Amino acid sequence: MVAPTRNVIRRDRVRERREPRHRGAGGAENFSSSFTALGLLGYDGAHVSANVVDLTSGLVLCAIDDRIVLPTASVGKVLLLIEVSARLTAREFSGYGILDKSLRDGAADSGIWQHLQAPSLPVADLGALVGATSDNLATNVLLRQVGLDAVRARTESLGLARTALLDLVRETRGPDDAPQLSVGSTAELAWLFGALYRGQVVDEVTSRRVMGWLSLNTDLSMVASAFGLDPLAHRAVDHGIQLVNKTGSDVGVRSEVGILRGPRAVVSYAVTVQFRDDSMARRLRSLEAMRTVGFDLLEYVH
Fold it and tell me: Are 78 and 214 in contact (CB under 8 A)?
């Protein structure tokens, strides 16, 4: 009988049913404010999911419906960056290799390449654009280069069963298209970022490259809004904390996954909220709940 691989064992553990909790070592209360804020959204009809892990002790600090699969918008682009980085490590193509944008790659909304005159950019620069501004055009050009099937195969090889990049970025989604750009469970996403932090996704070089791209992220509007960091420059340690994160926004969806390192601890976290986006008040309540999670994270690591 063939012994199960580490990824298979981890995947089976992730699939096990777990009760929501927010207690730390010795029964001390942790993340009770987060639990309350997200719970109120749930009572209002939203789907909420959260997972926070202390990467030193391995203790799960917060687990709220962290096995359910929810839309995660642009968070799934991390899976594309992993595949691109792995190919750069294997030298299947060069980071200096030039890729052209075309009309079929066009996608509005996030990103700046659509506003630039440059018709072509190196592969590594496109990875930086995706990490920094979740660039939709750069995402589609990279997907055309590596293929969605390869991203899916890489995702499965990591043992991720409930997290996937489903499609390229589309301005409109028809009946024949995937209904979401990406989906995921917060348990798997928090594990993935923890593995990236440890250099365990494919290999250390691949993981470090992905973390470098993601460290450029300029979106601090959700969980990270509580950290007081400069959205345009936070790669270095600032008042003892350092952040690497990826966000996803769509109509009725807000999702964030990241690593927060402080003087006392380092944690991986993932929070997703799917809500009825029929009023500004409901949207702001969702963002405020995510910000509350951020305050709890900051208190824990700092």
Answer: yes
In a 10 Å sphere around its CB, with 0-12 CB exposed, 13-18 middle and 19+ buried, how is residue 212 labelled?
Answer: middle
- Measured over the CA atoms of residue 201, residue 205, residue 211 and residue 216, the dihedral's sign is negative
Is the C-alpha dihedral spanning 124, 85, 209, 109 positive or negative?
A: positive
Q: The domain 37-301 belongs to what CATH superfamily?
A: DD-peptidase/beta-lactamase superfamily (3.40.710.10)
Helix (H) or strand (E) holding 227: none
For the chain, give every domain's residue range. 37-301
pLDDT tens digits, 170-204: 988 888 888 999 999 999 999 999 999 999 999 99
Tokens of 246: 């990826």
CA–CA gap between residue 53 and residue 60 (Å, rounded): 4
What is d(CA 123, CA 144) in angstroms, rounded to the nearest whole number? Answer: 12
Reduced to 3 states (helix: H, G, I; strand: E, B; else coil), residue 23 is strand
Q: What is the largest CA-CA distance in the chain?
A: 58
pLDDT in tens, 41-81: 999 999 999 999 999 999 999 999 999 999 999 999 999 99
- Burial tier of 75 (Cβ tally within 10 Å: 0-12, 13-18, 19+): buried
Give residues with Cβ within 8 angstroms of 83, minimum separation 6. 146, 150, 151, 154
Picking from 158, 154, 180, the residue whose alpha carbon sits closest to that of residue 167 is 180
Interior CA angle at 207 toward 202 and 212, to 5°? 160
Burial (CB < 10 A; 0-12, 13-18, 19+), residue 287, is middle
| Backbone dihedral angles phi then psi of residue 219, each to the nearest 5 degrees | -95, 105
Name beta bridge partners: 182. 165
Instruction: Give this prediction's pTM.
Output: 0.90
Q: Are the beta carbons of 242 and 261 closer than 8 angstroms?
A: yes
